[in-house]
């Protein structure tokens, strides 16, 4: 790590240590849950007990501050917080019986899914967030306790609701609403978020047949060549999702079909164009250099292709190379309307910090 990057990295750590406890948002993407995950990873990397203790304090604060009005979505609410707790336990950062700890989370989310069907299909507010949460809560297909059965039923319901939504549009030949490519790069693009969530189910061997049927419909516009990402950044993001999907060999898609599509998506990408499509001066995950670094990191982990590793390191360093500014936090530019997200995972310092940790210690 260069001296300048080390200095700016430490500024991120200090800013989060000073401010995280005062953040009102408890959630995964913009609040205390994402920051806690970061400090647990940082503690494991540095062997610094202070960071681990601080992360534990944030988890305690989250539980103390959750109330009846806490949102339920994946972005700011219980679904994302619960996913974070499960992630920390499964990766050895916390010791807990999550069936006990998350029992009330499960009940509230099942009730919401049953009686207030989400209108959104994406990760942050909709079906994909519910699928992601209940996927992490279904740990063993042989588990027969009542809570696990209820969680499996909730997961299947979320999949069925998504299938109904997609089928209606597929039958009508109208998948534009699903495709809906954002005007600027957005790592949470609904189209790729849904494919990523369903691919995770294939990977885990959970409701694979149902997931594959939805994937087949979702990929129709690409197979029939009726759409193609306009932005190079979104082509890169979609190539990552297809690369991951290829590993699990859905029956309807020969490997060479995926290889040809990935090659087409990655063809002609160049750094200058990628940079021009990002939010200016943003190093963050959702729409900045951090998001590009994350995509290339995942591609490297999937393929072991050194080109992807080099690109990931380039984009991570590029973000730390932005001119320091007073209009933001820890020298990183943040516009006024996003100040409430400035410390978070998706559009804040936590995401930048996470992307700077070594590959070997970061499974997220």
> Which strand order spans the largest sheet, edge to edge or round the barrel?
1-2
Nearest-integer average pLDDT: 90
Secondary-structure element pattern, one letter each: HHHHHHHHHHHHHHHHHEEH
Report strand %: under 5%
DSSP helix fraction: 55-70%
Distance between the termini: 21 Å
Number of strands: 2
Tell me the overall shape: globular
Q: Determine Rg (CA atoms, Å).
A: 20 Å
Main beta sheet: 2 strands, antiparallel
How would you describe the oligomerization state of the chains in this entry? single chain
Classification by helices and strands: mainly alpha
Protein model, in words:
This protein is mainly alpha-helical. The chain is built from 18 helices and 2 strands. It has helices spanning 3-19, 32-46, 49-65, 78-90, 98-101, 103-115, 127-137, 146-171, 176-179, 190-204, 208-218, 220-223, 232-246, 255-266, 271-276, 289-303, 306-320, 349-355; strands at residues 328-329, 332-333. A two-stranded antiparallel sheet has the order 1-2. The longest helix has 26 residues, at 146-171. The mean pLDDT is 90.
Summarize the SSE layout with pairings:
Layout: H1 3-19, H2 32-46, H3 49-65, H4 78-90, H5 98-101, H6 103-115, H7 127-137, H8 146-171, H9 176-179, H10 190-204, H11 208-218, H12 220-223, H13 232-246, H14 255-266, H15 271-276, H16 289-303, H17 306-320, E1 328-329, E2 332-333, H18 349-355
Antiparallel strand pairs: 1-2
